């Protein structure tokens, strides 16, 4: 499987191709009002395979998301990373994701039921689509930012942002296209006791 995927990596993805991909992703996402459009046939990868794929795209992804010029995400790949390899997230369309948190979110990894993350905490999940046919490309960057008390009562004072691979903004609950990402909080209400944040599957937690 990995050899077949690696051959695809050797083909450089042009800026035009990434832009076209971002547009197609946006259209697909718009079709589903209450969930991320799921990948029908995600690849089955070992941790090593998933990690090598991510590492081969990592710098390109950072440059793409950086075009959004969001200060909250500056150098996010240097933040603490809580998974030891990318893992499939059913709540993010069966894409392979990584869970980063900035230094303000110091208790993200140890959060107990009923505890809260501090003001200024930012969580970032970048993503990669890998299908069992060998198609590989960057996915969206999913972001949560903890706001001041009372800033957004409808979302428990969380701001949700989705950035497409070319840096275009798919939606921001506190800005443009807020309705496009309104469903994010509905999903996160499932983990309201953990301050509305999902954590890494146990078998992927760093150190386990």
From TrEMBL:
Domain of life according to the entry: Bacteria
Any Pfam family the entry gives: Cytochrome_P460
Alphabetized Gene3D superfamilies for the sequence: Cytochrome P460
Domain spans labelled Cytochrome P460: 75-198
Coiled-coil segments: none
Keyword terms of this UniProt record: Signal
InterPro entries documented for this protein: Cytochrome_P460, Cytochrome_P460_sp
Signal peptide location: 1-28
Protein name: Cytochrome P460 domain-containing protein
Organism from which the protein derives: Ruegeria profundi
